[in-house]
Amino acid sequence: MESYYDILKTSRAHLKADGKPKTSKFHKWTNVVKPLYDRMKNEEKQLNEEIDKINNSRTPRLSLAQITDHLSRSNTKPNSSMTTDPKNEKMFNFTATPKVKRGSGLYKDVIPQTQLVYYDDPNELVTRLNLLTSSQNVGNTGVNNEIISILEELRERNIIV
């Protein structure tokens, strides 16, 4: 049930385009999806109450140093091949005067097709950040750039310091 709850919460497959639930009288909706949907609504209500408390009080903002420390700790492993392999150490040896290299550019099929997503609401950014950090905690290493960009956006909006 917890896995199904996480899937519904992330995919929002139980909701219509306008955000209302896709209700029915079938067993799956009444016994599985509806209780999970009610749980999501309750958690969202509690989260909004906590956000209102924070917004109404004069508490200090989040410290970005804690998040940055966490990211740096999760990205470096003491026994990784980057620290022991001399070939890799040469790759990351930066000098003050790099050698100038000229090339003819990249082929079009080599450039990755990036899909840009715009978030107007800071709550959506925080939700996405939560999803990405959870993904990173279970081993996904390809989300660091998006986490950093969301943190920068939240910092620009003065939501975190």
What does this structure look like?
By secondary structure, the chain is mainly alpha-helical. Helices cover 57% and strands 0% of the residues. Helix 6 packs antiparallel against helix 7. The chain is extended. The two termini are 37 Å apart. The model has no long low-confidence stretch (mean pLDDT 77).
Which features does this protein show?
single chain, 161 residues, mainly alpha, 7 helices, extended
Provide a concise account of the structure shown.
The chain is mainly α and 161 residues long. The chain is built from seven helices and no strands. Helix content is 57%, strand content 0%.
List the helices and strands and how they pair.
Blueprint: H1 2-11, H2 27-56, H3 64-75, H4 81-84, H5 86-91, H6 122-137, H7 144-156
Helix pairs in contact: 6-7
Distance between the termini: 37 Å
Count of separate DSSP helical elements: 7
Quick one: biggest sheet?
none
For the secondary structure, the number of strands is: 0
Question: Which secondary-structure class do the elements indicate?
Answer: mainly alpha
Mean pLDDT: 77
Shape: extended
Amount of helix: 55-70%
What is the chain-wise order of helices and strands?
A: HHHHHHH
Radius of gyration: 22 Å
Low-confidence stretches: none
Question: Beta fraction of the residues?
Answer: under 5%
